Automatic annotation (TrEMBL):
Region of interest called Disordered, as start-end residue ranges on this chain: 1-30
Protein keywords: Oxidoreductase
Keyword Nucleus: no
Domain spans labelled Aldehyde dehydrogenase: 26-482
Ranges of Low complexity composition bias in the record: 1-16
Xref: Pfam families: Aldedh
Keyword Amino-acid biosynthesis among UniProt keywords: no
CDD domains: ALDH_DDALDH (cd07099)
Record family assignment: Belongs to the aldehyde dehydrogenase family.
Name this protein carries in UniProt: Aldehyde dehydrogenase
Amino acid sequence: MSADQTTATTTATTTARPSGAEPSSSPRRLLEKLSPVSGARLGEFPVAGEDEVRAAVARARAAFPGWRDTPLAVRAEALGRVKQVLAEQGEHYARKISEDTGKPTFEATMTEIGAVPVLLDYILRRAPVLLRRRKVSTPIILPGKSGFIEYFPRGVIGIISPWNFPFQLAVVPVLSALIGGNTVVLKQSEITPIVAGVVEDLFRRIGLPAGVVEIVHGDGSTGAALTRADVDMLFFTGSVATGRKVMAAAAQRPIPVELELGGKDAMIVCADANLERAAEAAVWGGLVNCGQACVSVERIFVVDAIHDHFVEKVREKVSQVTVGGPDEQADMGPLTSSAQLGIVERHVKSAVAAGAKVVFGGERLQRPGQFFAPTLLTGITPEMEIFREETFGPVLPVVRVRDEEEAVRLANASEFGLAGSVWTQDVAKGLRLASRLECGQVCINDVIQSVGHPALPFGGVRSSGIGRYHGDEGILAFMNTRGIMVDRGKLNSEPLWYPYAGKVAHGFELLRGITTRSVGSLVKGFLGLRKKMTRQK
């Protein structure tokens, strides 16, 4: 928790408890939420303790058998009601998201609310195909047998979601877990407690059985309690530092864990790129959501031949970006987290001190709230903090490179590997460069929007995380896999079973058939073993 973003107090209260919990008059901590736009107090929100988290997990555990055994079609029908609720409540939800985060209402509508039905449609369409039992080919060494693969839910999933896209990044993992028959305990960020209430309202309105989705409110201590609770899997989206703690907690049991962590995403601008499009994309890709996206453009590698021309185009476009709160209908809002504002200021100052040039912006805006000017920097080098660490703010750092080869090498010189983009009018070249980037997703002549492609898996390598969601992988991530082999059961024994006496020579013949793919040797070896098996009856 960011201490200067939300503050904790202790008070006696009998309100704001999880659904189904008993009233309590014991003191509990409350978090004070301040507006990132004005600094005004927006309210106080409860912090669930260890006992409340355990109780929520117990309710999800009790609900699991019933939800698991509910036919997939019935589960899909229930989850499909999300779209109806969003159609009715979407505008209200978007405005609450903007109030909590400070992001423009258009962004809240499209990147938060609008993304959910697109991804849900894919989940509902693909789950019946993916989750049915399927037959697999069986090798000749196992004659008379058939192999099958099927999936079954892991159980109770603990999901810890972040503050930067607090609606979408909570709702989509929950839906992905629920479709397969899991139940969920969700803990959202203390930095966006208003959105946590919006998500709770959404799942209340679709009318799921009690305990299928439990939501616990609180700070880092609540999330830590969830990692220690009796869950069967942890799904975490957030910082690398906290991701390591989640992974360590999961290792104690051990249970599966999926980590969706940070990025330092590279944008490679080739000499033959459509510079107008690339410049527009750089500005939007680096400033959307005030740069608070794991897939934000955080390093722009521009080949020397077009560097100056490209930088000037970006400068012109950055200078036209309007900044303000949701009521001002601006392009870019404030940083949601005041702690993140401090990181952005530090990265820019240290880069300038190390020789970077501020082409535009570079400082906090002199107005109430957590606003930082859209910023364009040139002269960035690999030794700088802003090159190596995730900034997560409205800063566009440009790196001049000799050619695409140097761009790829420097792009891969990072502990992160989440996403990237390549800009060229030669798509074949773009594909070649994309295939050399060590990251989980790459766009060619586009940026960020690949995250919204429902069939594409999303996730990173190295410090950007473990696992994938979205796409087919995002459904199967919450499932256990079971292999089944079937024999017709007509024989009383098997050639490979006891006793072994007299079978060695036939075994060698069978081995030759396996290693040389000789059908004759396989048949000869098997027939010999079968004869021995028959004689020994």
